[in-house]
Amino acid sequence: MSCVDNFVDQIINGDNDYQELDRVYLYNRICALVGDDNHQDSTDVKSVLIQTAIINNKIEDNQTAKEILNDQLMDFLTPLPSKVNDKFWDLYQDDPQKATDYFYQLSQDNDYIKVKAIAKNISYDVATDYGNLEITINLSKPEKDPKAIAAAGKQKQTGYPKCQLCLENEGYLGRLGYPARSNHRVIRFMLSGETWGFQYSPYAYFSEHAIFLNTVHQPMIINQHTFNNLLEITKIFPQYFVGSNADLPIVGGSMLSHDHYQGGKHDFPMMKAPIVRNINLNIPDVKAGIVKWPLSTIRLISQDPEKLIQAATLIHENWKNYSDESVDIRAYTDGIRHHTVTPIAHRDGANYILDIVLRDNQTSTRYPDGIFHPHQDVQHIKKENIGLIEVMGRAILPARLKTELHEVGKYLLNEPNQMEAYHKVWADKLKDKYDFTSDNVDKIVDKETGLVFARVLEDAGVFKWDKQGQAAFDKFIGGLH
Ligand SMILES: [Zn+2]
Description:
Layout lengths: L2 H11 L9 H12 L10 H11 L7 H15 L3 H14 L1 H14 L5 H4 L3 E7 L2 E7 L8 H9 L32 E5 L2 E7 L9 E5 L9 H13 L4 E3 L16 E5 L4 H4 L2 E5 L7 E5 L5 E6 L2 H16 L11 E2 L2 E2 L1 E10 L2 E10 L27 H4 L2 E4 L2 H13 L11 H10 L7 H20 L6 H12 L3
Parallel strand pairs: 2-15
Antiparallel strand pairs: 1-2, 3-4, 4-5, 5-7, 6-7, 6-13, 8-9, 9-10, 10-14, 11-12, 13-14
Helix pairs in contact: 1-2, 1-3, 5-6, 9-11
Bound molecules: zinc ion.
Zinc ion binds next to loops.
């Protein structure tokens, strides 16, 4: 059987909108993409179809063209957006979990979620003063093809879709420098009177990594509305946590231009961290406390989401205008706002839990990258922004570290190496601290990388875990009214 016939079989037997009567039509639609000739027989249907298209000169032999074609083919196996939405909400009536199970499976089966690429990521836990932190080295994003970058530079910018979080990506063909989305589907739902989309992240950082996006392309803003939306989402999807990146650049995420939240099914280290001091906000039915966590975090717990919104708004409004020179905290300098929060909501039985992480976006002559950002001495491990996922204790470290840390290992064993100079101060300290052997070196480097990540998070904390810092935290709490 030819690869095209084989693929038509798969489509007709799959869970989508096509039936036996569509066989001839499907055969021709696939020939339109891959060409009429050279249809070899193979079980690895997809890659043979892509090779066929290259041989028949239907596409160029490069990464972008192959991805675009792959997703066009996978689109045949995927029901129309309206059908996916119908089935999702049908299943939801029975059980929200069944609905997300269906959509998550679909998003993996049709190659939208890059399962194979994600499997390359390195991931392990390290015990620290703040419990086990999760370290991942992100190897899933494909290396950019220099030819594609050069070609993309010459392309006319259409401004469509406006960004990768826009709903207009659903079914978008893709182009050089912009991902293919023919097989992409988005679930629509109502959130506080607005239509929102729910989808998974194609390069997931954890289990069922979900994205909730406004169907209007508008900037991220943290306010009472945000707290309300987050708690609403945990009502609609009780099995998922959901959080928002802060709405300022250094302490926020990389996509501030499009209103969105991230969530999913994962118990992050921060969620397991205990409250060490209870605080009284004078809001009935709300339990509040300071969490034993490197970033300054206030945990709010209640069975009544309205009360949590009230408490979160109180903290946020006060923090926006709060300065304490003694610990370098300034709400405004030269009329520029520095204060915001990273809020994260999840459910625990009948309780709603809302963690409010205080953030300060200032820079200084001493800390040009950010006063509450990884300082220079830890930037050899992490210099990128500390966004939502890392705030919760899961490090997303750059791919370069895989080879770099291997070279550090060789240096520690006094073997010939090509260690980057910026790791030397750290590596020399490790040499003083341990006796390295080829058996223990990898383990120690992993552990010490985790300890550096703990320091990275401490740098992002506005109230440090020393006497002065905690007294300043209590002073801020004492002034909440
Ligand atoms: Zn957008």
